[in-house]
Amino acid sequence: APNMSWAYQELAKLGGWKDTKRTGRASVKVLWQGWLKLQAILEGYDLAKSLESDL
What we know:
Largest sheet: none
Number of helices: 2
Number of strands: 0
Structural class: mainly alpha
Radius of gyration: 14 Å
């Protein structure tokens, strides 16, 4: 099962974080950008599922 470290890194990656400084730490701004991108992806998924059920 995924842990908090995995979730943190994946959200950061969605926000554009690449860990070029090798610190392992993403900024709050990047985490928010990742969170908003994840929300957009999930919204698109929900829309696609609702359109699929209308067929």
